[in-house]
Amino acid sequence: MPDVLPQKRWYRTPGGVIFLIVVSVILVFVIVFGGLIAYYTWQLKFGNAEELAQRFSQNMTVDASLAERPSPTIIEQDIQSFIRPYSPTFGNNDAPVTILMFIDFECPFCQAAYASFRDVMETYEPTARVVFKHFPVTAIHPLATQAGLAAQCANDQNKFWEYYNILFERKVFEKNSLGAYARELGLDMNLWNSCFESKKYLNQLNQDFQDGVALGARGTPTYIVNNRKVDGVISREEWDRILLEEMQE
What we know:
By secondary structure, this protein is α+β, with helices and mostly antiparallel strands. It has helices at 14-46, 49-55, 108-123, 144-155, 160-170, 175-184, 189-197, 202-214, 236-248; strands at 61-62, 89-90, 97-103, 128-134, 219-220, 222-225, 228-231.
């Protein structure tokens, strides 16, 4: 009788291997998906529901502690009183339009808004003055404050906006990186390090945050355009409409 070759076990056949791979992928998906469902169910029942909702926000980072506060569209206060001596500014000081921008460097929505708003700043420089205000949402952005302190220390050497650009373009906020950005801009590192390590502008960052709360900001990005509050990621076309309306008033 001719020799009979031993039959391969099913899981060693090409079809069996493919079947096992498909089953493994499905199992991994089910485990991961099930874990996420369990985690978010637990968060909704026992955890911080406001923070969870924030993660799924489509337009801006909301500080959970301010989520329920009224957020008026028209500002009654004189916004000029919120421009502090330490506030970095860009554009014409005598411009008919003033924009207070409340920003958290670690906020993903501020990062998404960065490029279009930079174009707005450059286009409207003769007719709009931009004033930077810090609004670090520290509960979910633990590095936002030190990024803000680093930028203010760059402002001491008239390099705020250059440092601002680097922060948004690199999106890395660890201490070593913040120092590297200062060196890259040619800052006096003795002065910058002394300023940064002493947290020279911490009180000023806290003041900016309180200014934002007083003006109805609940998160970032928030902009006060003359006496109109707009927030979230705003398209270039919408910015053109808003600014042209303000200049015509």
